[in-house]
């Protein structure tokens, strides 16, 4: 995976160089197999989606990840775990997220996004709902004191990372 995705590779190599043990959660067949689901059989070429990102696949992947986390927790009961994953896997407000199955008092969800939007899509639910009326997308650091707001937003903190300061080499 380090070779196939430069962003992951850079981060995982840096973590390893700092002495952090890195363990993968994803099953190899998910990462190394391109799978497409057809949403509308009448127009199969125009209505395909990555199979691994549909809700039931995310559910199955997260269940597998949870089993991996539980095994690692048994091996390393006192370790701090940093789960580096797509926001949909850990957001408090997404279906089948990992956070529902983990000890709530030990969780902290931080979403990291590029400060420069690459595709004009909302980074998360707040950007989507707020649009320009509540421009959350302009906030470099967005956090909530109220736990109910964190759960509603989907995260404890969102950081917009300036790519020139954290360039992938």
Structural class: alpha+beta
Widest beta sheet: strand line-up: 3-5-4
Strand content: 5-15%
Order of helices and strands: HHEEHHEHEHE
| Shape category | globular
Q: First CA to last CA: what distance?
A: 16 Å
Helical content class: 25-40%
The major β-sheet equals: 3 strands, mixed
Radius of gyration: 17 Å
Polypeptide structure, described:
The protein is α+β, with helices and mostly antiparallel strands. The protein has helices spanning 6-17, 28-32, 55-75, 87-90, 125-130, 147-153; strands at 36-38, 48-50, 110-114, 141-143, 157-161. Strands 3-5-4 form a three-stranded mixed β-sheet, with no helix packed on it. Strands 1-2 form a two-stranded antiparallel sheet. The longest helix is centred in the middle third of the chain and has 21 residues, at 55-75. The radius of gyration is 17 Å and the shape is globular. The model has no long low-confidence stretch (mean pLDDT 80).
Overview in brief:
The chain has helices spanning 6-17, 28-32, 55-75, 87-90, 125-130, 147-153; strands at residues 36-38, 48-50, 110-114, 141-143, 157-161. The chain has six helices and five strands; from the N terminus they run ααββααβαβαβ. It has a three-stranded mixed sheet, with no helix packed on it. The chain has a two-stranded antiparallel sheet with strand order 1-2.
Which descriptors would you attach to this protein?
169 residues; alpha+beta; three-stranded mixed sheet; two-stranded antiparallel ribbon; 5 strands
Give the topology, please.
Elements: H1 6-17, H2 28-32, E1 36-38, E2 48-50, H3 55-75, H4 87-90, E3 110-114, H5 125-130, E4 141-143, H6 147-153, E5 157-161
Parallel strand pairs: 3-5
Antiparallel strand pairs: 1-2, 4-5
